[in-house]
Design brief:
4 helices; 93 residues; alpha+beta; 3 strands
């Protein structure tokens, strides 16, 4: 699944550093559309599952409920994480 992602550069769309980083991360991911669970996000953010559940309830967090299971697409999670790392917002607010 190591397909090359072609993104054309036009005059009205100049790629930002964030766009370039996302493109590089996608190239290295085996399956960017894989879903992560609360437990996996908690481990990645180095927090407990209760706090990770609160993150999944945030309006700006791209989670999806599949039955009773809360999940987030890996690619959407990394984009969210990168945006919040750059901003002054705390993840646990």
């Amino acid at each position: 699944m190591n397909e090359i992602i072609n993104i054309e550069r036009t005059e009205d769309k100049i790629l930002t550093i964030e766009d370039k980083i996302i493109m590089e991360v996608i190239k290295d991911m085996i399956n960017p559309f894989e879903n992560l669970t609360v437990k996996e996000v908690a481990k990645d953010l180095k927090m407990g599952e209760n706090l990770a559940n609160q993150v999944f309830k945030r309006r700006d967090f791209p989670s999806v409920n599949i039955g009773k299971t809360k999940t987030v697409m890996k690619l959407a999670y990394y984009i969210w994480k990168m945006k919040h790392r750059e901003s002054e917002d705390k993840i646990d607010e």
